[in-house]
Amino acid sequence: MDSNRSTAETIYVSDAVTTTAKILVVGHFAVGKTTYIGSLSEIAPLRTEEKMTEASAHVDDLKGAPDKVTTTVALDFGRLTLSDELVLYLFGTPGQQRFMQLWEDMARGALGALLLVDPSRLAETFPVIDLVEKYGLEYAIAVNTFDATAEFDEDEIREALDLLPDTPVVYCDARDQTSSARALIALVQHLLTRAA
Ligand SMILES: Nc1nc2c(ncn2[C@@H]2O[C@H](COP(=O)(O)OP(=O)(O)OP(=O)(O)O)[C@@H](O)[C@H]2O)c(=O)[nH]1
Ligand SMILES: [Mg+2]
């Protein structure tokens, strides 16, 4: 019985929760969106992974992720209880051009976006920033620490992405829960400042 209760407590949102917010986790192909939501979600994340075939070889550049065999074809979904009263719903949104149609729906009602960036593939982030801005989403940058991160400092990233001075830039390892949570908290703090 106890085990049933603990399962229920994990699956269902606590009665004490008064606020829920929808947050998008966005970024270019293979930047770590599915990994990020998987490391943070307190429920088994919903994933829509499909095997990549040769048909996508010329569109999805595997340069930065040579071992990748699947890609998200719709969305990732996860949930995180941030405090007794606040629950975040995380929606991973693909950055590839062919999924643009999704953004219309995904962006509706979203409070903001965490924009994952691979510092060695900065140019691939430009179209994603365009989308985030097109849909009027407040955002924070989470630099996913792939191996080359040490070569890029925050100022370089800010300049390359032409960020506003108050746009948060945090470093994270999408595979690490604590590190991922820190990035999300930076976004939430930014959103709260903007709302004040
Ligand atoms: N070294 C390292 N590898 C990572 C990190 N985050 C993700 N990866 C790996 O990078 C690859 C791509 O990660 P995904 O989470 O599938 O990326 P995605 O953004 O969801 O990819 P798409 O949905 O296909 O656009 C996977 O093999 C991950 O294991 C990281 O912080 N460091
Ligand atoms: Mg994915």
Automatic annotation (TrEMBL):
Among Pfam families, the record links this protein to: ATP_bind_1 (PF03029)
Q: What is the protein's given name?
A: ATP/GTP-binding protein
The protein's organism comes out as Streptomyces lacrimifluminis
| Alphabetical keyword list | GTP-binding, Hydrolase, Nucleotide-binding
Gene Ontology molecular function: GTP binding; hydrolase activity
| Family to which this protein belongs | Belongs to the GPN-loop GTPase family.
- Where is the chain membrane-spanning? none
List the InterPro entries hit by this protein, alphabetically: Gliding_Motility_GTPase, Gpn, P-loop_NTPase
